[in-house]
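Q: Got a minute? One more chain.
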Amino acid sequence: MRLPALCVLLAAAPVAAQGFSLTASSTRVEAGQSVELDWSIPGQGPLRLEPGGLRMPRQGRLIVKPLATTTYQLSEEGLQAPPVAQILITVIPPAVQVPEVCAFEPSASTVLPGEPVVLRWQCNGAAKVRLEPGGLELDGKSEVTVTPMESTKYTLSVYNALGGASKSVEVKVLSTPVKGAPAATCAFDADKKFCYPGDPVTLTWDCAGNAKVRLYPGGLELDGKGSVTITPAATTVYTLSVSNAAGGSSRSLEITVVPRPKADAPRDPVALFRDAQLDEAIHAGEGARAKLPKDAWTLRLVVSGRREGLKSLAINGGAAAKDFMVLPFIRKDGFRWWQACWGSFPSHAAAKRAIRALPPSVLKAFGRPMPFQAHDLPGAPKD
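A: Always. Here it is, folded:
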């Protein structure tokens, strides 16, 4: 029976009461190496072995394979008392290895402007990597979603004390569908782009010609015209792959899943900024903008960037903070940031006059805002 593996940094002698014994075949091992635990505990009734919460006899042996620092403890089952015996196993850290980009690939290599693409990678020898353009520092095994507006070359670099490595992929963005191209996805849409975990979302598509359609993730083979209901638990990019005798193409949609608000707590937009809840803040901002008239104007603040920058809205917004709208902003290389707007006005002139109503702290922190039509902001995603 195998127990969860934990790393140990220091070896320790067994700790046990008089007559109690818990020993190990070795107290210093490499990750995943077998260790035999041997124990004999006087008394009656079963014991509990941690980690794992396993029921054990008073006397026995067990093979464990710790991957990281682990203290194994034997306790009387059913009693809230200190362990009767314990031992610490040290897992020796592996030597530093030369960094290597094992895998780096996009979910699609050719897309239409603004369609989401998932970049996935796995690297050995480093916990962090750097992704360009953007200069983002990310985990050594992870993924990020981009929505490029123009063809972009993405480069993943990894470094440690022994050297470095890099790998590049290119995502081509078509300005218009290619004439005479293989099977095309005529339409692929969702009834909502934001939802709470487990909420139903309906994906619909209508593809021209006698085409075969597959939906990812999952690889479901579907009719060329239809719909399906999904219940995503986390933000997911859905890709519809279409093919016929001439070849294939794909379309993608991203469904953003935001935390469900507590039933007994009113939604507080300022709290979303203060706690850097970007997805939920954008969800609230999109909802507020959707209620504005089609010809409404707003004031766009000179602020955008990464998640942590949201806190500046709460800190400097004052009484105006509750009326901020946080909306998505997409750079040309596809990286998604955000932008902040304030208010709704019937005309360009009215928006300019409203600048005087902003608190001085807002003007000092973000500079003089610029009037824009609320439904035609720079960097806004295109449907």
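A: Residues 1-17, 178-183 have pLDDT under 50 and may be disordered.
Q: Perfect, thanks.
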